[in-house]
Amino acid sequence: MAVTIDATAGGANANSYMTLAQADAYVEAMINSTDVSKWSTGTDDTRNRALAAATQRLDRERFIGARATNTQALQWPRTGVRRPDTYVNTYATGFPFRISEDYFSEEEVPDQIKRAQIELAVYLHNNTDGISLSGLNDFKNVQIGSLNVTPDKTGAVGADHVPPMFERYLTGLRISGPGNIAIKRS
Description:
The chain has helices at 20-28, 34-41, 44-58, 111-126, 164-169; strands at 66-67, 78-79, 139-143, 148-151.
């Protein structure tokens, strides 16, 4: 059965943050690579499946703020999330300014989320086992005694293969992960 994309922001049946047409527009602007060129030769159904799978993986992240409604199917839109690039640090004069425009609206899906989704969707379209691998297949050798780990390649490795740009787009939007620092009191 073919996958149908529902990209209604805050929708109860949404399964993607962008339509296939929007995804194609993002891909057109990407640097040409093997994954990008294979995206354009794929069928609508395989690209829709990649978008849906990328959304499912993206929604496993722990994001800042709270879902905007109890009925929405996806993690975004959210409330109480500051735009990472508009933070004004004014500690010299007190707390940072809290301007309402600094926050994403309750109907808005950040561009970073859409870009992370398409980065992962393009990757998954060409690498169909990308997020279902054991994590050990990325290593030539894994030894326990004297811990000798020899990677097989560089780039996305581990049980949850994701392209590095996927991680970078989520900086400032999630609670933890690469690019986010957790601070604990001692």
